[in-house]
Amino acid sequence: MRAAGQAYDVLRTDEIQRIHRGALRILDEMGMQVENERLLRLLGDAGLAVDLEDERVRFPIPYVER
Hints:
Oligomer: single chain
Strand content: 15-25%
Radius of gyration: 16 Å
Helix content: 40-55%
């Protein structure tokens, strides 16, 4: 991050990695709400776990990292 022309390390590398792992876990376990039936169907056709009733799609960790 830069502020007033100076570079600042706000987070340590291990903290960034923890945030990244947490985001991957959320996408994998809880997924994301998508309020577009056509897009949900396309994501389902791509092999993702889609719940049309809840308008939710889950993204497995390997899929996101790829």
